[in-house]
Automatic annotation (TrEMBL):
Residues 243-268 are annotated as: Disordered. Residues 256-268 have a biased composition (Low complexity). It comes from Actinacidiphila glaucinigra. InterPro entries: TcpC. This is Conjugative transposon protein TcpC. Pfam families: TpcC (PF12642).
Length: 268
């Protein structure tokens, strides 16, 4: 039986371990770290104030090794210690630790986990190359695709107007809640087909587009956002059939399965 990915355990242990002190083995933090890693030594503090303050840890990659154990890369975000009561996260640095974890299925369904050695500080992950996207045809800003998308995103992100009027029949999409956006501009729209650059084609014709959007919140902060959408022509206009945010289609691939759209009450 395949053991569970122990990313959460590695993340928790790294946070505890980075906050622990070998001179204070009885502290709750040290005991919690030892509960996950009984044979792993704790850091030894000098007694001086640390130059960095740990803000948070996040597991970023898990790899199952040939012997069945796991190696989990955990990012630790630090901020420089200042005279202020709270550290300034705007000057944060990120360090990375590889954590070796043994994982098995335990009684009660909670699983069994043991960190078998101290974390190894490692360099950060490399930057993966970005494949060429098919939506490389820039559309006019006042065209028959960009114009309804401006109205769609205003309704979707700010709640002004109705989202449904811009959707294909059978597609449902709830507007974003709690963002505090007060204004939206569509900076650029690109498509994967020349059919989107001109008069609206016959009903049923589809296009994949990417919209570069800037949303402004009540504080005046501007947030650059990117959306990949599937559009379908109907009755002389383009309608949103799927919102595939975060899952762009790459050249030579089929459209990804959207998680925000439903047809006939079932997820698509």
């Amino acid at each position: 039986m395949r053991s569970a990915d122990p990313a959460g355990v590695a993340e928790l242990f790294t946070d505890l371990w980075l906050r622990s002190d070998r001179a204070d083995e009885q502290s709750g933090t040290a005991q919690a770290a030892h509960a996950l890693a009984p044979e792993v030594p704790l850091p030894q503090r000098s007694g001086k104030a640390a130059q960095q303050v740990l803000l948070r840890t996040t597991a970023v990659r898990s790899v199952r090794l040939s012997d069945g154990s796991w190696s989990v890369i955990v990012a630790a975000q630090y901020a420089p210690r200042t005279a202020a009561a709270s550290p300034d996260p705007s000057d944060a640095v990120v360090r990375y630790f590889a954590v070796p974890v043994l994982s098995s299925d335990g009684a009660g369904g909670a699983g069994a986990f043991t960190v078998r050695a101290a974390p190894a500080e490692v360099s950060g992950p490399a930057v993966a190359p970005i494949p060429e996207a098919p939506t490389d045809r820039i559309l006019p800003g006042n065209g028959l695709v960009a114009t309804p998308l401006r109205e769609f995103f205003a309704a979707y992100l700010t709640g002004v107007g109705e989202v449904d009027r811009y959707l294909s029949p059978g597609t449902t999409l709830a507007p974003v809640r709690g963002s505090g956006y007060t204004a939206v501009t569509v900076d650029q729209v690109s498509a994967d087909t020349e059919a989107a650059d001109g008069p609206v084609p016959e009903d049923g014709r589809r296009a994949r587009v990417r919209a570069q959007v800037t949303a402004t919140d009540a504080s005046g902060d501007r947030w650059p956002l990117a959306y990949d959408l599937s559009l379908t022509a109907r009755d002389g206009r383009w309608e949103v059939t799927a919102l595939d945010a975060g899952a762009p289609t790459l050249a030579g691939q089929d459209s990804p399965t959207p998680t925000t759209t439903t047809t006939g009450g079932e997820s698509r």
